[in-house]
Structure formats: structure tokens, C-alpha cells
Amino acid sequence: MHPNGPINPVRSHPVPDRILPLRHPVPPMSAILILKPDTLYAEILRQRLLTVYPGARIESVATVGAAQERLQAARYDLLVTGVGPQLGGDVLDLLSACQGTASRVRRSLVIASPNDYRELSTLRLLGVPAVFDSSTESPEQFTAAVRAVADGKCYWSASILAFMQRSRATSNALFALLTNFEQVVLSVIGDGCDDVVAAEELGVTVATVSAVRRGLHRKLGVQHRGELVRVAAQQGFIRFTPAGVERPGFGLLRASYHGRRPKTTAANEVAVGPSGK
Fold first, then answer.
1. Is pLDDT at 219 greater than 70 in this prediction?
2. What is the Cα–Cα distance from 258 to 234, expressed in whole angstroms?
């Protein structure tokens, strides 16, 4: 993610739209971690994985926090996870930690649906090798996805890629319209909080947040705080859940502007943005 321009996840990390021919034999996957809140769903995944790797140690957890604890205690060859508000944490941040060279997970496979462009484009930005659409693909195709990932290939469901292609024009327009810092501020004030709370969260002045808010109203063509909340939710910057407000990928987004110091003036934040745009 480049700190000097707007986030554009689609162009940042291309993913093949097909599976390359598999090499055999499939590399062993001796330790697999499943992150799914639905116990029955997790057991179905476990049974399917055992058909590919009968001797694997397969563990299941229901929350991001529990997954982080397991990853601190042991290494895994494969992480199979869903996305969404039921996971009790930001799975995008978890996946970000799983993509580095020091990761305690060798490969990742995400089970998702084609309905959240920003979330999917973030997965693409992170270089997640496999995103599987369980709403359109069969158990046999899931097995193919697992084998592809184990073999070092990419597997992105055709329905996921088609959805991203359809959504690209309008979503890219928003990403290009807002600076990195404006997207960070939108992720915070998008839950309806006031400028004082947002300033404390971001470590900037209240004047900076107020100025950025005015710019967001102008750029997004909204008049009221409620309209700004609606846009933030529709574009995936915030998510309202029974447990509270979630901000998918906020840690990644915030890191993109390297945490501006409070002394930065509001005028400079709006005029050029913390990324220098």
C-alpha cells in the first residue's frame, strides 16, 4: 500500500482468474486452523479437509481473538476463515499478519460471498491466495481450492471476480476521490461519533477532524451526519453488529498514512492530506 496516494486495492495486487495446473503430489498440510463461528459449518469444513489430508491436525475456533491465541502458541500450514461481523474481531487485520514472512501460517483460504467490494479488494491487496464462494461452488470445488492453495497456486472463485469487475467502476471512483487520511477519518466518524471522540481516537486535533468532515460532506455530496454514516456503511468502512461497531481493515487503512502527528494543521490535512496528496 503506497503512502502517497489513495488506496486502490484492485490494482495493487493482481490475482489470476484461473487455477494453474497442479503439481503432484500435493504438499502436506499437517496443521490446519479453521476460523468459523458456526460449529456445524466448522465441522463440515473439517470433514472435507480430512478427505484431502487424513492425518492432519485440524482445530476450530469461533473468534478472531481465539485464532490469535492459537497462532501465538503454534504454527499452522493452512488457515481457513470466513469474513463478516460474527467473528468478534477484524479478520482483515488477522489475515494481514498472516501474509508476512514471519507469519505463523503458511497459506490462507477465505470463504466469502460476493457482496462487499471493499472487503474483497482488501483481501486482494493483502495477496490472499484463495477466496472461495460457498454460495455458488460445490464441496468438490472447495477440495480443488484447498489443493490449489497447498500447491502454491491461487484460487479465486469466478463469481467473486465477476462481482469485483462489476463493482470496480463505482467503488474505484470513491477510492480515487478520497485521500488515505480522509478514508481513515470516515472509518471513525462513520459510526456517528462527534469530532472530539474522533480526534482522540486518531491522535489529531478537533479542528483537523472538523475540517476533514466538511471536506467529506462536500466530496460525497451529503448534507447531514446521518448521510455520512450511511455512505460509510454502504462502502464497508464501518459495520454495525450486536456487539458494537466494527471497522473492517481499519488497522491497515490507518497504517497507510503512518499516524499523523497532532501538530499537523487542519488546513494541511485537507489541502494535501497526510499522505501528501
1. yes
2. 26
